[in-house]
Every structure is written in C-alpha cells, then in structure tokens.
C-alpha cells in the first residue's frame, strides 16, 4: 500500500497552521492583558460543570478547529490565573512564556525520556539541564539527578535512595519486615507533609518520623536533633536520614544546614535538603551564607516550577553520588533492549527514578535557563524578595495589620480591627473568613500560615509580573475586605 491511511486523528498541514496561528494569537492576547482579568472567577463546581456540559462521551468526532476554540475559551476565562500579578498564593510561579512554546515543541516530537535510544537529544538536554541546575544553586556539577513532576516526587525520589543506601542491604529481597532495628528519620516540625506520605507509602510508618522542635527563629533545633538521634541509637533504633529545609512553605525559613551536615557525618546519616521552594535564592550573593552546608547534602529537592518560573510540571532531584539512584531504581528485564554497543555508556533515565515512560519536562527548564541566564534570575528573584520585604514593612506601618514574619519572598501578617479587644481565637476566625473572601473575590489571591498559633495571611512572591504598585494595592484591598469581614463576624456573633 502506498496511500496514507485516511483517519480522523490527523490534521493536515494547512489546517494545523491555521489552528496554531489562532491559538498563539489568543494566548498572546491573554498574556498581554492578564493583569486586567480577575485572578479567579467565583464559579462553583456545579456552575463549571454546566458550562462544560454534562454530556456523554461523543460517538462521532468534532473538528479540531472547533474543539481548540472552545477549549481556549474554557481555560482562559474560567481558571485561577497564577500568572496574574496579584496571585501571591501557593508557591506556584507565574510561568515563563517560553515554557509554553517549549511544551508545544516537546509534545510535537513526543520523546520518551526513559531510555537514551528512545530520546537521544532529549536525554542529552535533560542531562545538561541537571548539570546547570546544580551549578545554579552552587553545588558540584557532578551531582546527578532527574526531572520529576514536583516537590513530592522530588523528595520521594531522594527518600527511597536514602533508604536503599542506609538500610540493611537485604531490604531488596527480604523487605522491611525482616529488619531487626526500626528505621528512623528526622526533620523539623515545620517540614512539608510529603514526609508523612513517604513514611506511609514506603513502609516505614509515621512512627518512624522524629519531628524535631524548632528554635526561636523557627529553624530545626540541632541540639535537640542530636540528642534525639543519640537516644534512638541507645534504644536500638537505626537512624538513617535527616531532612533539612531550605525555605519552609509556611514562612520561608532556612534551617541551619551546616550544623545538620555535621551531625549527619558524625552519625553516618543521609543528609537530604528539601529546597523545593527556597534553594534558588542561592543565586543571590548576599544569601549564599544562609545556605551554608548545601553542598554537603547527599540529595536536594528543588522545583523549577516554583522559583525558576517554569510552567508545571517541573521538579528535580539532585544526588551527590548518582550511583545511589541507579542502585535504587535500576532494573533490566529481558524485554528492555536499551544497551549500547558503542564504547560510550548511554544514560537511561528510567534507572534514575520511579517512571519508565517519561515526558520531556527538561526542555522548558533548559530554554528558560538560557533565555534568562544567571544574572537575569538574580535580578528577578532579588526583586521578588524586595517586594516581600516592602509588603512586610507596609503591614508593619498599618494600624489595622500585624506583620508577623518575613523570610526569603514569603511574608505573613494578619488583619486586626482598630481598637480590637477580642481574643486570639476571634482573630483566627476573622482572618480565616477574610482569606476565604479574598480567594474568591477575584482581586487578589493569598494563602494562609499558622505561626505561633496565629492564623495568618501568607503572601509568597514568586511572580515576575508583580510590581510595587500591586503590593500597595494589595494592602488597600485587605484593609477594605478586612473591615467587611469583621463587621459580618461581629453581626453573626450578636445573632447567635
């Protein structure tokens, strides 16, 4: 047969070009006017389902032109816009536009970056991206690693490598149930909830976690850490891993990493750093000392889709000795024909992580690193921190706000009515009600943090579109909505 198959999935050259041009025009208009749109639209799940249409699976296909047009309208007009300059909520950055183009290009080639033979150029680009990320944060470019979906998976990948490296070698055949000593891990009480998930999913159980108290600056108390390790060893436990945080998600605090590193060396423990959010700040010279000890880590998690402005999804695990990843994840079933007959050894990323089939996440990170460059990131990240500091200072100066904390690009504060005489419980309820209103109002999107039993508004600036003007307007919005929330809460209390 010489004729091409006639099918409904192919789009001919001219139609593809026409659809693509229209889509790029629509996206360009969207990005250029994003600041004029609401941050989010107040639509309930039922309303969205009605807009989407509760229809059955189509029996007959619909033309691509019509489908792309409708999908464009649905997404651009009915989404939370984390690229909006007043989105300072969860740690999801405004995405670099070059990343959108990168994802289109990557999907067009559709390499499976699990084995080199399936993705020759994509594999080499990911390897170079890993090297550049290591250089970016100031550790040896000899760190190996892999791009994953985000912070949870980056930390999980390192967690399993640590377990393989530090648990008895029999674990692969005999499992955890046959280990005589209970494996234990150590982290600050402010560490992200991924630790709970990892302990449960990977067989250690939540009782294996030692949640170490923090000091007055909210850093892990390293003295208590060492005392706890000593006590566990005395009682027959087997410590295997300490997790330090480089920018905790609530307040942005960086643990005393150098001290943790020393303890890990003294007791032969794996030193992991969760730097998913904060570690890119190492690019700024004046913050390098804050991250002393980073280069001593056995593994580091970081998320380019957080403070490197990559579109979702893009997380990364870096490991000082990449052989630990291979020891953990490599397998060679007979149906894998991924060997190379040449003298050079090809890297197969399926041996570095949990996935076999893998998309080309690296392209958008690789292109952004080149477009922006080290100096460009230093400027952008520095400006984000400066804006966070401005927000903290404005909150401190305002009689109706209480500035609570400021670290890296995260500021926490809360609304307090003038002549306030109520309890902390009332303030917690008030600020929770205020946050709920802000998150659905469309003008501004913040998140929350609990700091010293205070329910706080939390603003995380990882947004290259946010300006000083936005920060000043944010204060005005919070004061206006805070007064309304206080009035409503007072009225409700009176009526109860």
Shape: globular
Percentage of residues in DSSP E strands: 5-15%
Q: What's the total helix number?
A: 15
Low-confidence parts: none
Q: Radius of gyration over alpha carbons?
A: 25 Å
Which structural class fits the helix and strand makeup?
alpha/beta
Largest sheet: 7 strands, mixed
Mean pLDDT across all residues, rounded? 94
Helix content: 40-55%
Strand order across the biggest sheet? 1-7-6-5-4-2-3
The tally of beta strands, per DSSP, is 11
Distance between the termini: 80 Å
The sequence of SSEs as H and E is HHHHHEHHEHEHEHEEHEHHEEHEEH
Fold and architecture overview:
- Helix 4 packs antiparallel against helix 13, helix 6 packs across helix 12 and helix 13 packs across helix 15.
- 44% of the residues lie in helices and 12% in strands.
- The model has no long low-confidence stretch (mean pLDDT 94).
- With 496 residues, the protein is of the alpha/beta class.
Task: Produce a short descriptive summary.
It is built from 15 helices and eleven strands. By secondary structure, it is of the alpha/beta class. A seven-stranded mixed β-sheet has the order 1-7-6-5-4-2-3, sandwiched between helices.
Topology:
Elements: H1 13-32, H2 45-52, H3 64-77, H4 97-109, H5 120-137, E1 144-148, H6 151-166, H7 171-174, E2 183-188, H8 194-201, E3 209-212, H9 222-234, E4 238-245, H10 257-267, E5 270-274, E6 299-302, H11 304-307, E7 315-319, H12 323-329, H13 362-397, E8 401-407, E9 410-415, H14 424-441, E10 447-451, E11 454-460, H15 468-495
Parallel strand pairs: 2-3, 2-4, 4-5, 5-6
Antiparallel strand pairs: 1-7, 6-7, 8-9, 9-11, 10-11
Helix pairs in contact: 1-3, 4-13, 5-13, 6-12, 9-10, 13-15, 14-15
């Amino acid at each position: 047969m010489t004729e091409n198959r006639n099918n409904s999935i192919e789009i001919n050259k001219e139609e593809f070009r026409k659809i693509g041009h229209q889509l790029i025009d629509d996206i360009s208009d969207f990005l250029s006017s994003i600041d004029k749109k609401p941050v989010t639209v107040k639509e309930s799940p039922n309303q969205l389902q009605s807009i989407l249409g509760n229809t059955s699976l189509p029996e007959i296909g619909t033309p691509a032109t019509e489908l792309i047009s409708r999908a464009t309208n649905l997404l651009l007009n009915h989404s939370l816009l984390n690229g909006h300059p007043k989105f300072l909520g969860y740690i999801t950055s405004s995405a670099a536009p070059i990343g959108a183009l990168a994802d289109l290009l990557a999907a067009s080639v559709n390499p499976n970056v699990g084995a080199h033979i399936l993705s020759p150029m994509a594999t080499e680009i990911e390897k170079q991206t890993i090297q550049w990320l290591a250089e970016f944060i100031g550790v040896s470019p000899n760190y190996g690693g892999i791009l994953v979906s985000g912070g949870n998976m980056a930390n999980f990948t390192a967690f399993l490598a640590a377990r393989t490296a530090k648990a008895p070698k029999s674990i692969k055949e005999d499992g955890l149930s046959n280990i005589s000593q209970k494996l234990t891990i150590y982290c600050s009480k402010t560490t992200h909830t991924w630790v709970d998930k990892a302990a449960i999913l990977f067989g250690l159980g939540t009782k294996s976690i030692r949640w170490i108290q923090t000091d007055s600056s909210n850093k892990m108390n390293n003295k208590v850490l060492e005392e706890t390790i000593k006590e566990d060893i005395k009682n027959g436990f087997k410590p295997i891993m300490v997790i330090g945080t480089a920018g905790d998600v609530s307040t942005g605090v960086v643990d005393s990493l150098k001290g943790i590193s020393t303890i890990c060396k003294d007791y032969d423990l794996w030193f992991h750093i969760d730097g998913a959010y904060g570690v890119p700040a190492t690019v700024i010279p004046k913050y390098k000392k804050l991250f002393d000890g980073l280069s001593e880590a056995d593994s580091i998690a970081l998320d380019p889709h957080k403070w490197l402005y990559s579109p979702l999804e893009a997380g990364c695990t870096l490991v000082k000795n990449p052989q630990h990843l291979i020891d953990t994840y490599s397998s060679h079933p007979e149906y894998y024909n991924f060997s190379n007959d040449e003298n050079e050894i090809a890297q197969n990323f399926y041996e570095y992580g949990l996935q076999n089939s893998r998309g080309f996440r690296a392209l958008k990170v690789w292109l952004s690193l080149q477009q922006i460059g080290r100096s460009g990131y230093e400027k952008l990240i520095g400006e984000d921190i400066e804006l966070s500091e401005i927000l903290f200072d404005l909150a401190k100066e305002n009689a109706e706000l209480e500035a609570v904390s400021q670290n890296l690009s995260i500021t926490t504060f809360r609304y307090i009515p003038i002549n306030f005489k109520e309890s902390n419980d009332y303030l917690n309820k008030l600020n929770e009600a205020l946050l709920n209103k802000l998150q659905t109002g469309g003008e501004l999107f913040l998140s929350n943090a609990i700091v010293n039993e205070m329910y706080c508004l939390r603003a995380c600036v990882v947004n290259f579109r946010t300006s000083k003007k936005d920060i000043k307007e944010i204060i005005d919005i919070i004061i206006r909505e805070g007064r309304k929330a206080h009035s409503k809460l007072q009225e409700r209390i009176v009526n109860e």
